[in-house]
Amino acid sequence: MLKGASVQYLFWCSGLGKAEWEKLIDGLVKQGILYSPKVVNAMLSVPRVKFLPEDIQSYGAVDTPLQIGFGQTVSAPHMVSIMNEALQLEVGQKVLEVGAGSGWHAATITELVAPKDVPRSEWGHVYTVEIVQVLAETARKNIMNAGYGDRITIINADGSKGYPEKAPYDRIVVTAAAPEVPQPLLDQLKANGVMVIPVGEISLFQTLMRLTKDEAGKIRQENRGEVAFVPLTGKYGFG
Ligand code: SAM
Fold first, then answer.
1. Is 126 helix (H, G, I), strand (E, B) or coil?
2. Is the entire prediction scored with pTM above 0.85?
3. Which CATH number fits domain 13-227: 3.40.50.300, 3.30.450.40, 3.50.50.60, 3.40.50.150?
4. What percentage of the chain has pLDDT greater than the value 90?
5. Based on C-alpha coordinates, what's the Rg of the chain?
6. How far apart are the CA of 234 and the centre of ligand 1, in A?
7. Ligand 1 binding pocket mutation candidate from 130, 196, 202 (most atoms within 8 A of CB)
8. What is the rounded CA–CA span in Å between residue 52 and residue 237?
9. Per-residue pLDDT at 233 exceeds 50
10. pLDDT at position 4, please?
């Protein structure tokens, strides 16, 4: 019996997943959610289905969050698109993601900071932190199977404290809702860096914040609209 990566590979090769994914991305472009050609290409080249458990793969190209176990979700494609556009990712950047989940969002970021068609010496790197050990292991497997193992490092830890070992970062993205912006993440952001993070109460919607740090360390905040995320846990999250 085929399992794991083999089934995902066959599903994708069947062409069914590919056509559905292209249609979904085209819809996000038409809605104006995706607008930068390189972000469109990155989203097109990393179909979500490759990072999903077998039983929900047929929903890969449906624009909704999906359950991945432990009360957690893989974000909806429109939300990952909004965050990736807001991050203004460039080749060579070092990125911290808090909340690896399935590993899919990290892979889409990697297509922008370390694409295979530029020399390895120009690659950036993605560090993604996941607090749930089993999810961190699954994300690692998904990332290896999808061919990103050389450009993404998965860490099983409390990412609300950031990942000081590799700081500072050009970009930080938090994929779970925080009660407020964790100070360690602000400290680990480079000058001229950008952070995207949902902030607010967990019972309701939160605000997607885009923060930039200037050369003097001053932080500027912009509100990018209402969102609904699972809670950030850990020391600087909801506990
Ligand atoms: N980016 C993920 C993907 O591509 O599948 C989806 C992220 S999911 C919406 C949020 C993730 O954040 C969950 O996997 C959850 O376990 C993780 N998380 C919550 N609090 C965390 C923390 N303090 N440190 C690291 N990960 C955390």
1. strand
2. yes
3. 3.40.50.150
4. 91
5. 17
6. 11
7. 130
8. 26
9. yes
10. 45
